[in-house]
Amino acid sequence: MPFARANGIDLAYEVKGDPSAPPVLLIMGLGMPLALWPDAFVDGLVANGFRVILFDNRDVGLSRRIESADLGNALWAIGKAFMGFPVHGVYTIDDMADDAAGLLEALAIPKAHVVGMSMGGMIAQAMAARHAARVASLTSIMSTSGSPRVSMGHPRALRAVLQLPPNPKDLEAVARHLEHVLRTIGSERYPPDEAELKAVCKRVAERGLDPQGSSHQLFAILASGDRRASLKRINAPTLVIHGVDDPLLPVEGSRDIAENIPGAVLWEVEGMAHDLPGPLIPALVARIAAHCRSAPWDQSPAP
Questions:
Q1: Whole-prediction pTM value?
Q2: Domain count, the chain
Q3: Dmax of the chain from CA atoms?
Q4: Which of 14, 51, 224, 237 could be 295's S-S partner, Cβ–Cβ 3.0 to 4.6 Å?
Q5: CA-to-CA dists, residue 103 to 57, 83, 121, 133, angstroms
């Protein structure tokens, strides 16, 4: 497994596709390693002529863990953020965006199409605002602007995501716990194939989940607060995708993103929740590939 030193962090990554093809950087969501990206989604982008770079965010998978003292009760912190009070974390979404930009630099990739899912969408947005020269196009999937007004999910979905597995060192228990989480936040109209779900959860568990790391990432989201002012600075061509049935991050979050990024295009997907359902992947890949192709492209060095 290759590693790259990015923003002072050792990040584990994978690259798939023709080395000469335009690169697409995929950024995963809260607490999840790169192994959660569906094979059909990644392979679909490769088949459309892109080189796909996947990586584990800091504090998850095979990437570096950040040591810190206990940050406190997550529900209490969510409540504070919802009421508009500041929350302090070990790092912020901006720091994670700097990691992603640093990965491209370490791989000698001047710029890439950037696609982020959930928290990964937040990181991708911050990357487009902070490192504009490295972002050829932006695709934000099932994410939010950080505004408390549009970011609060259904209590059942929040409980599922925040609940810890019974024994983090028992990979089978972790995989079963993850199955429950993904069913809870996933698309009821497009239920997953059970064998595929179990296989994905097993490989995610084996790649590495870390309850403390997930807490760090959650507090990074909360500490970053309302990011609408930074969204207004984004000049990359932007596609915003969100499932209408998302119980974890309501579709209003992506509506808010699209309203604040100049020229952004919003696609609300009927029947999709907080996942990438197999039957919808061909349409998702086709729309994202078309968006990437339509963006102005050159490989001049980033400043």
A1: 0.95
A2: 1
A3: 50
A4: 237
A5: 10, 35, 17, 14
